[in-house]
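Annex B. Sample input.
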Amino acid sequence: MILGDLGAEVIKVEKPGVGDDTRAWGPPFVGSESVYFLSINRNKKVSTEVVRELAGVCDVLVENYLPGKLQEMGLGFEQLGGVNPQLIYCSISGYGQTGPQAQSPGYDSIASAVSGMMHITGPEDGEPVRPGVAMTDLATGLYAHGAIMAALLQRHKTGRGGHIDCNLLSSQVSCLSHIAANYLNAGKEARRWGTAHESIVPYQGFKTKDGHIVVAAGNDKQFVRVCQVLELIELTQDPNYKSNKLRTLTTTHTNIPSDWLRRFEGSGVPVGPINSIQEVFSEPQVKHNALIQEMKHPTAGRIAVPGPAVRFSSFPPSGPTPPPLIGQHTVQVLRHTLSYSDDVIRTLLASGAVVQNEAF
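Annex B, continued. Sample output.
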């Protein structure tokens, strides 16, 4: 999807007549279309021989099978590399292409659990919690996107493609960041902190009369400004609060005014409300950043999805196209990308090797 946002032509290969599992993930649905599927498949457009020929003319192949499965079908990296030595072949799996768990299936929730992400997420005195969105899936997609771009640059220098191994487990363990470093270097086991931060104080959510907000004082100077804004000057003189290290060892309870956001305006201290999703898409900055994209879907009508997070000064983002219906672009791809004749296309359709949506 991100590569499509950047202008790539994306051909999505699905099981004929059934399609991607996420087409059935719901509710909610828009008409008969899964909103989940619609949200992550914008910009995408089909027997093994067809895939082999596509690999011969494409720059990048991204696959999400159990390791070795495509090789059994004659579509592994070495096999397709013989067809197109410049092909960038990106494999995305649960645990990696080799190793003791390589053949285990993986979903976001499983990888989030195995990687420790759930262990560190949730209220301080509560049970482990699954993050509200599929962060492991998203992180892996972002890693894959960056790896593909780097591989394309390397190919520009060497003239050869390569095999990229992206997996959910590695992506999420890499994202453990300082949590991992704390354990690896100091033997410190992580625990859940709710909205708080174990190493920075104050850096957490607070409940006010008008809702929840987050205050993040990342240094001693900002802590002093917090105290000034909240009229707690005495804390700046208390030896227990003189440094961030000391503040992490001290607990303070204070009355929370309802006008915190207004008070912090212009203070230089990062602060923001904990928004509902409705409030998110009412934020003026969200609208200014063009984070709401609208597209016209052939059956669901007008749909809206989050827009790209990045803007470039040198070129505008590609205009979004709606996620395809099953088989919507089959004939188009066979005819225009692979130059198949109408007779060959009719034979493939009649055999069931490919499917064209009857609406197109």
